Structure formats: C-alpha cells, structure tokens
Here is the input.
Amino acid sequence: MPETPPIPRRVSKNGNSAVAGLLAQSYPGSVWLTGQQLSRELRKGRYAAESIAHPGKMLPTIARYAINTYTDPGDLVADPMAGIGTTVVEAMHLGRRGIGVEYEDRWAALAAINIALATKNGAAGHGEIYTGDSRCLPSLLPPQIRGQVALVITSPPYGSSVHGRAVTPGRGRGKVRRIYDTYGADPKNLAYRRHDELAEGFTKILAGCQALLRPGGHVVITARPYRRQGELIDVTGMVVAAGEVAGFELVEECVALIAGVQDGRAIDHASFFQRKNVRYAIANGDPQWLPQHEDVLILRRTGSEES
Here is the structure.
C-alpha cells in the first residue's frame, strides 16, 4: 500500500495521554474509498434481507479492501466478533477461507444463512461460523487453524450508541421511532458493558487472536469515537491500547470513508438520528460534525516477520 502523510486526528481530552502520544507518531496511512454505495445496495442479493436488523454491520467494501490488501487467494481470514458474517462472506467471494465467531445465537444463525447464500452465488472460498464468547479464543475454534490465520478483521461493539433505523407509523405522520438498534438480549454481551469492561474484554479477544495468526499476519480493526451523555468516548484510543497490551504493534493508521465522493465533494450517508443529534448539539452551542469515516487500525504481532 503506498504511504501517505499521517492523517491528523483529535484525541479526547479525557483519553489516555500515552495513547494520545502513540497516535501522534508518524505511521503509514491512506484513505480507503469505501463509501461510494449505500450499505443496502452493497448487500442486495449478496446477503439475506434480514441482515438489515443488525445494528453494527461493517461495510462490505471495508472488509473487501482489507482482504484484498493484506491476503492472497486461499488465505484464512477470521473475525472474532462476526455479527452477520460480513468478513466471512467477503472473504469467500474473494477466494479466501473465512471463519467467524459470534456471541449471539440470532446473528450466528443469520451469518450461517449468509455463508450458504455466498456459496449459492458462486463464491470460490469456504466459510464457517461458530457461536461462543470470543474472550475464550482460540479454544472455540478447531485446533488445526492455530498459527494459520493471515488476517483478522473485526470491530468493537458500540452498545447503546448505535442509531438503528428510523420509521414512522405511515406516510410520515406520527412520532419517529427507532428499530434495529440492539445487539441482543444477553446482558453479558460486551456491547452492553461499561467502557472499561469493553476495553478489558476486547484486550482478551485480541490476546486470543495471537494464537490464531501466522507469522506476519495482521489484525485490521475499524473504530470510531461516540458520545455518551455528551462525553466523547475514545474508542480508537482504546483499541490501540488493547492491541499493545495483547502484544501487537500499530503499523498503519488509515481512514475508510463511509461517505461517497463525487466531483471532489463528500456525499454523506448519515442516518436520521445522526443528523438529528448533530442539529440538536449545534442548537445548544456544542458544534459537532457528522462522522463520515471509520478509523482503520492495522496491527501486527510484535517481533513477527513481514508477510
């Protein structure tokens, strides 16, 4: 991947100062043009229609870009927080082997449907999904894949901060309500834990990934800050810190656009609730921006060889 100047970023004033210093260093980076199409268009015919119900889906183009960049056909790609199986499905369509772990039975069953659909649609690769708590990796997966994974792609959950989808009773009349904004009913799901518990759990997941990765293997994590009761939660900093504790080094910082780019202008794909929240904040004297990208952090095991 060609190197570009590091992308400027802000770190929350409440964030870890050591992490802020780490992110301020010069790492290779690039902008991934991954938001040219709406998510629903990217998934049409490729994923089961029920996939829209998951509140924290990764854009298929982000997974696709990472897989194309960091793996070769036939390689093994894993996602320890697989959701509806986006990473696995995109790996299959690119001729890789995909394997995922999902905590909630509902999403694991839907991921299995999407994997079967990929096979039906002619995907050259193979995919598998397992149900379990990825804080217990790698015991959830077949022992023969230890040391064989070329790439891990995942994203931390965002719990109550997800926006879901806006619907009205009919013809635009009545109060707008929110649907598709919950991960599941289990309170032990990391999505519903406090930020410090999420950080601890995510660190355990990354530590488990160490045993799965082959020498020179990479971990690609998408993250973005969110606000809780007005406070900016530095998820990106948490991911970097968790990776360091788990024995990884940060080797690239990139930006994956979730907005389209046409004639030099960004075409945002913000949700109803994102727009509503930003308008409300500005009206109350708190200038905010509509987020139109995901931070992409590329980690590599400390001391491992280049792939």
Q: What stands out?
A: Confidence is low (pLDDT under 50) at residues 1-26, 161-167. The chain has one domain: 17-161+185-272+293-300. Helices lie at 17-23, 39-43, 60-70, 86-93, 105-120, 195-212, 235-245, 272-283. The first strand starts at residue 31 and ends at 32.
